Amino acid sequence: MSIEIRNLVTENLKIDQAPAASGYIPVADASGNLTLTAPANIAGVGSAEIITGIAGEVLANHDLATLLNGVWRRASTNNFMSPLYGFVSQFGGAALNATVSVQVSGTVSGFTGLTANAYVYMSGVSDGAITSTRPDFYGSSSGSAYNPVGFATSATQINILQYPILMSGYSTLAANATFTMYHAVDAALMRDLRAYVQTPVATPAATYASANQDTDANLGSTGALVTTSGTDTGSFLYVGDISGTDYARAQSFQIAAGIVTQFTVGFGANTGTPSGTVTWKISSDSSGLPGSTLATSTFTPVASTINTVVVSGGPTLSASTSYWLVFTSTSVQASGNLWSIICSTSTGTYANGVSAQSSNNGATWGALALDLQFSVTVLSGTGTPKTKLAQSFTISAASQISGVNVWLKKTGAPTGLLTISIQTDASGYPSGTLAHPYAITSLSESSLTTSYASVNIPFPLFALAAATTYHIVITTSRASGATNYISWGADTSSSTYANGTATYVLSGTNTTLAGDMIFDVISGYFEVAVLGRNSAGTRDMGVWFGDSAFANATTRTTFKNVTGSTQTFLVFVKLDGTG
Question: H helices within 16-64, ranges in order?
Fold first, then answer.
């Protein structure tokens, strides 16, 4: 670049900037120095309004900047913006605490790659950057700036728009829980508030009921189910009262190392009318007879069938070690009222154990050369883990989806993070592609219980099409193991769900489970929520200016769920700059 100077004292003239883009004009500042400035940014040239201030951090030319606490800073990825913003219009930018010029109106040029005739927004990725993609108003509970900052008239030019700052927040709140939105200073407390509650439709869009569950689909478990069983039949041993004597029965067994998950025992026809329940125990061995109790509970025997008892939180057994399955009457029976356990007619054929009887309801024991009809199942740590569980489904009508319910439990103490998503279909298996960007969330495994329960997984509302196959998919961040894992309840014996099937990934390969998981797909809609004061009144949300400690009233707004139950809310805070 060359400049011809005439009739000017040259020792007071300096240009200390690198060569500028074509079209920049040298303009003298208050110190007598020349600054290279875009023509649109010079008074009387174009229609731009320029504000000169102090840079609160290093700013580059064309950074989207906002005025915070008296200094100009890049509009931040945490979506913290004031109602006054613009683009840095100073070639070479500005250093920390240096003077900076920011264009807050008119047309600013010099961009590349803009989408013509489209709004531009603050980027959620890089500080000071912009994007043509509208921000996600489900972004966070702490607040996301939602309003456009300009309109791209071409691939290189933006017409700046000064809209009131509109912050959005989205959160699922338990009863009386709160979330606080952060925003720029509103000294006059003139902000506007709106709120909506996400409401589920009572009838699921797709469902398979928990009453159908008969097996566990385990996620991230290296365990394999191992069963030992005695199959002898032909006679009976009684539990109950015979002529005033209270009889109890037991069967010893050995099995692979693992966690007891269930046992079975065969019952014949009752004698008399035994009442109440039978107490079962899994006990250690003491000199060939039942010893100390490892696990116990009760059940009501069903006559003339094999009874299956699921053991929740069962004991861990060692290999090549004798244990006992014990059955006693929970309460004293009247004389002649007996349950009948099926057994061998003579010496039993079960190789790894023998039965025992007690004539004082389990206080002392004696050995018998018979075997009961029984089985014991353990989860042994010798299997290959399933690393993904899934259930496909369709819905009959296009719907806005607000969440899913999944039938889950934990075993042991898993501490991983579950990822739950809805994915599109690829030849009968999950494609790996989300059905919608909102169709993914997470859940802590530790929050589950050790008994099955319907776990609600909320999503921000998104649309799914009718008669289209989708998949509910669950994965975990936890390393696989034999004792700590989660289970999704399934039906593999007589599934009647016609619009999908369960699948899993084993050793990297998609596999069909030949059954269905227990699930609901929930549709929903937004309703206007009633806002009111926090202290009293008829409202859905109590609101106050400030944080949870009632401080920082000018830069925080807190919302509290006062409906009495867990709800999902979408809220907006508008700052119009008048404060």
Answer: none
